[in-house]
Amino acid sequence: MTSMLAALRKKLPGRNASIFWATVLGTTGFYQYNKREGKKRLDYYCKRAEMVANEAIGALDTPRKVHVYVAVPMGELGTRKARLHWERYILPVFVAGALDYELTLVNDTVTDSDGGGERVVRGGIHSLVAEEIKERRRKEMEEDNEELRLWRAAIDERKKENKERERRNKVGASGGSGQELDIANWKPEPYPGIMDIVAIGRETWVEAINGISDGAVGSLNYTIPPLVPLDSEEKEKKDNAAERKISTDTAVAPTSPGSSHDEESADKTELQITDTTGSVSGAGAAGESVVEAPQPQPITVNYDRYTNEESNKTALSRMIPAVAYISHMNITGWSNIPLRVWNFFHNQQNVDLYAQQALQVVFESTKRAVHGTEELASMGKAEEETAGWEGQERIDVVVDPAVADGLQLYDTQNDTALRLSDEEQK
Predict the structure, then answer these.
(1) Which pLDDT score, from 0 to 100, does residue 246 have?
(2) What is the pTM of this model?
């Protein structure tokens, strides 16, 4: 018996090998357990969202659609992390609830000329949201105003022409047929109603709220954009400038007879240059200076003269979309590596947080009135405590009190959506 145990002991791995395999198997098992539990939690919220998808709607009713905005998270130079956050926690719930969406990723970066590196430019979402609301207000004013309708036709014609010119420039640069470009730039038909706004992350939330306020009470005047220059026209102008000819007349300057400098003066000439193309050159100049044609002054359509207090109240009550905030705790930096490792192996709490917030958007019944401007300003403040916000310029919420009073908010901070029964959870 003793010999058998001794022989078996020789076949067992050593202490170090046992520790290694125990660590590998334990870590793998813990990761697989977390992965399975996270999927179960996500399936739970998706099943709750299916309750909305299974509801019947009228034949003439328009299905709901939301506009999802995603900005570059603080401390990042791209939207990769935010896009993964959207795809992992939020998109599955929207799909399960049959909630249509339009996703806009805003990534504006510039490189400093002083060698400071690349940085993110904020304000893109603000401009998009504000212009969308302003355009809705303009079109409502045009319904009862013939002059504004004529201006609208001119604006649409200019936009159409610029779009075609941009297409021709891109096709000329790529050398293709343009079919691939048409497919890449394809957009669905405009939504007939008002899309509610979903802002992912604190930086997106602040820009969206400021954009809503600007669009509701800001100026409606619209400057018609200038024509986009065609690359072929610019090339033709450069070629014409290179081919311009200058005709010159040379004359000997007269000298008085008997001058002691007659011989020296005879060798001197004065060049009088006449530019046959119309540009002006000075005497003795060796080149020509081209005078650019004056640019046409921009045309601004004055919508503000047709606005009044009553129309502004209408905009506040009917033109403002409801808004939802979904948090994105972007954990970055060397000091947060242990926390990131922990989240990799224990992700259920993130699924519960973000999927539950997405579920509140699926259920339209969770909308409520805003509790003052303070609630809007404090939403998502916890994100500013993360490492990505260190050294970054904060953007404050600036919202008109009248806009805040008329704004509706999805209550994503509380789970008020319908729950499954015990039988449905099985």
Answers:
(1) 45
(2) 0.77
